[in-house]
Hints:
mainly beta; 47% strand
Amino acid sequence: QVQPVESGGGLVQAGGSLRLSCTASGRTFSNYAMGWFRQAPGKERELVARITSSATTIYADSVRGRFTISRDNAKNTVHLQMATLKPDDTGVYSCTLTGTPYWGRGTQVIVSS
């Protein structure tokens, strides 16, 4: 059983920064692409960023240039560095091992204007 666990969410003012982390044990972490998703109130969950096992990254258009995804395979952890945050970035951020049913419970990010 794999249970990703997210951390690092919180309340921040617009223009501020946060760093989210997701740790997943129980599998060979380095073999998996990892994804960060978010769900805003009243909206569907959407992909924010993804990093492959070879560290190739993709970003949603809305966050490109502001967010950076990275991974530390030695610590089974993937990070999401978020900068220049906007109120539209508010939501519950969850991570997953791409292509598996394993999702974390999420961490809340609130960006105040």
